[in-house]
Amino acid sequence: MSLSRGAFIVFEGLDRTGKTSQTRRLYNRLTEKGIKAKLIHFPERSSAIGQVINAYLTNAQDLPDEVIHLMFSANRWEHINGIRQEMLAGTTFICDRYAYSGAAYSVAKGLHFDWCCSPDRGLIKPDAVIYLKASSDEAIASRGNYGGERYEKLEFQRKVGVVFDQFCEKESSYWHQFDACQSEENLHAEIAAIVDEVLKETPSQSLAKLT
Ligand code: 2DT
Ligand code: MG
């Protein structure tokens, strides 16, 4: 049996740490090297579930914390079979936010950590998590105003950051932390070096699940 699957590379971090620019840069780099890659962003707002999430995030709709938490997870589940199929056929996915955002934002609101993790158990486990960590929240806030979406408040972001830090410490075998306050160029170079290493290993490894 020959395994030559693509990799699953997840980017995590607070709002405005540069995830979207860095995922694009990485995507361009891989594509230029002839590596088949796709970009995906959670929440994926176009599906029926995604539209409810969008209404919630833009404050057009209120939902109990538990309900929106399960919606975010369901939004991953509705896309995961398609992702798995393409990965097994060789496509590498670069994913802007994943289940760790799911847990971090809900735990920051006061929901129980284990309860938050359980709906995502069984999803594809990333080969690497690229964690963009702001060395100072103020530096990030000063990059420009947060948008008007729910969660885009400094005090709340700090609480979310604590949970990301815990994941990074506990899951250190595949989490890689980067300083989000350096130049976009440097950050890209550091990320590219790690991803090159990861891509050497993944084709021969079978897919794992979140536990
Ligand atoms: P973006 O700004 O990246 O579109 O995210 N979020 C995200 C959750 O609360 N749970 C999740 O499972 C995911 C994937 C983070 C919009 C906001 O949605 C939050 C910020
Ligand atoms: Mg945002």
Structure overview:
- It is built from eight helices and five strands.
- With 211 residues, the chain is of the alpha/beta class.
- It is globular and about 45 Å long.
- The mean pLDDT is 95.
- Bound molecules: 3'-deoxythymidine-5'-monophosphate and magnesium ion.
Question: Secondary-structure map with pairings?
Answer:
Elements (H helix, E strand, L loop, with lengths): L7 E6 L5 H14 L4 E5 L6 H10 L7 H24 L3 E5 L2 H11 L3 H5 L10 E6 L3 H5 L12 H17 L4 E5 L4 H18 L10
Parallel strand pairs: 1-3, 1-4, 2-3, 4-5
Helix pairs in contact: 1-8, 2-3, 3-4, 4-7
Domains (count): 1
Helix/sheet category: alpha/beta
The rough form would be described as globular
Summarize model confidence as the mean pLDDT: 95
The CATH homologous superfamily: P-loop containing nucleotide triphosphate hydrolases
| Number of β-strand runs | 5
Keywords: ATP-binding, Kinase, Nucleotide biosynthesis, Nucleotide-binding, Transferase
EC number: 2.7.4.9
GO molecular function: ATP binding; dTMP kinase activity; nucleoside diphosphate kinase activity
Protein name: Thymidylate kinase
Name a few traits of the molecule.
EC 2.7.4.9, nucleoside diphosphate kinase activity, binds 3'-deoxythymidine-5'-monophosphate, P-loop_NTPase, 211 residues, kinase, binds magnesium ion, Rossmann fold, alpha/beta
